[in-house]
Amino acid sequence: MTKSFAAGDTVYVIYRNPHAANVAHIKEAEIVHHPYHEGELSLFLYETYHPLAEDDAVFSTYEEAEVLYSELFEEDRYH
User: Fold this and answer.
1) The pTM is what?
2) Bridge-partner residues for 48, per DSSP?
């Protein structure tokens, strides 16, 4: 994650279904203060706080997320 985000920012992430590894979607999330870890930011997605890690692919716009999503998951890439 090369960009700086602040609490209240709306961001977009590529979210992989934990039950089906080949299923991924671009989802809107919010950057929030972690309620249990003072001073830490987290992603709020699906009513859950996810720790915000340096290597997370977090994007400011849907279009930015879509570029990486297309590179990673476009079926034509494998044909």
Assistant:
1) 0.80
2) 45
